[in-house]
């Protein structure tokens, strides 16, 4: 297998695994809006949002994630997903300062995930196993997004 194919498959795997994690967090807004309210209150100091607000946030995230997993508008969809995870990772600063309290050690898994998001964003033009990438390759323009 040649190198571009391996890279394409690696980036697809990275994109699918990122999508899976983000999808679970998005579905949480629909399934357990009260949990999402607790997360927003604790980590982002945002209070007073009702169930409808979390449904709206979840719906917008879902649209973004579908564009992301399909590889559409890579600069924007990959960038927005990266930004969401970066804010989430940085907002947990207290957990990093106290790693051995409760389940705080699990928060450290966010850092290699963030590195994966950054890598996927930086390599977005090489991510050819996308709807967007396939169309551009067919036109003779390999993956500029």
TrEMBL record:
<keyword id="KW-0472">Membrane</keyword>
<protein>
    <recommendedName>
        <fullName>DoxX family protein</fullName>
    </recommendedName>
</protein>
<keyword id="KW-0812">Transmembrane</keyword>
<feature type="transmembrane region" description="Helical">
    <location>
        <begin position="43"/>
        <end position="69"/>
    </location>
</feature>
<feature type="transmembrane region" description="Helical">
    <location>
        <begin position="12"/>
        <end position="31"/>
    </location>
</feature>
<feature type="transmembrane region" description="Helical">
    <location>
        <begin position="76"/>
        <end position="93"/>
    </location>
</feature>
<keyword id="KW-1133">Transmembrane helix</keyword>
<feature type="transmembrane region" description="Helical">
    <location>
        <begin position="105"/>
        <end position="123"/>
    </location>
</feature>
